[in-house]
Amino acid sequence: MSASYGLDFVTSYPQCTYRKDEGGGEDAPMTHATCTFDDEIAPGARVELPEQLVVAVNDKALYERLDLSVDPAGGVTDIDSGDNYVAQEVLADNTADFAVRGTDVMGSAGETVTAEVRFQNEGPAWFGNLGSGDPAAVVEFRVPQGTTVSDAPTECRPRTLTGGYYPNRVGAPRYDCNLPYWVSENTERAFAFQLRVDTVVQDATGPVVVRPVFGEFAFDPDTKNNSAEVVVNATPKA
Questions:
Q1: Residues 137, 195: one domain?
Q2: Residues 111 and 79 in one domain
Q3: Which domain does 173 fall in, by range?
Q4: What is the pTM of this model?
């Protein structure tokens, strides 16, 4: 059995060993339970857990999954393994506030400056596309007028303004930066772009938005912080 990050096993069985995987890298955090039964099982017989399985929905939960599978032991061949697995989805009543941050940078013509855009999940829930494996979110950055991207993060794909294919890593008018398929309740990610200032354009603005691969963030309670700006050579405030 495997329970996603927002679920906690309440029932503890003596036949089972439990292991928490804290996540990190590509894998989402999970709790795994491996249960072993030494009984001889005749055709048509069933083996059940000694008491009902209970899991708790914790305060980080959002779109959760409980996966259960069974395999024969001792080298026994299963003539039909297609019915050995089932997954139960659990939708928690919770929210995850996704946000992006831009920055202001200054540069003279011919100078290269670093413009960093940031993503943050302000919680309280984590989020994972546990079924599809699609990115949890895409941070889209449109390059300010008068500048050229001379270096971009590896997670960021060059695009045309309309989202089409762009043949070069540098010099694109837009970049789409994929997050992993899951983010914790306090994930922060920074994407640093090298911008060459070709022409000084006062208050040149590059919009930054965070969006899903498809649809919308139904769980996000505040969409006002889903957009920000990178401003190059902003007019000084009086």
A1: yes
A2: no
A3: 96-232
A4: 0.91
Closest CA to 142 of 126, 155, 159: 159
Same domain, 63 and 108: no
What total number of domains does the chain contain? 2
pLDDT tens, 147-190? 999 999 999 999 999 999 999 999 999 999 999 999 999 999 99
**Which residues are 118's β-sheet partners?**
101, 190
Q: Strand ranges (DSSP E) for the chain?
A: 2-4, 7-9, 16-21, 30-35, 55-57, 63-69, 85-91, 96-101, 103-105, 112-124, 127-128, 138-142, 147-151, 156-159, 174-178, 182-183, 188-197, 204-211, 227-232
- Domain endpoint, select from 26, 59, 91: 91
**54-83 pLDDT per residue, tens:** 999 999 999 999 999 998 887 778 888 888
Q: How many CA atoms lie within 13 A of 136 on its CB side?
A: 29
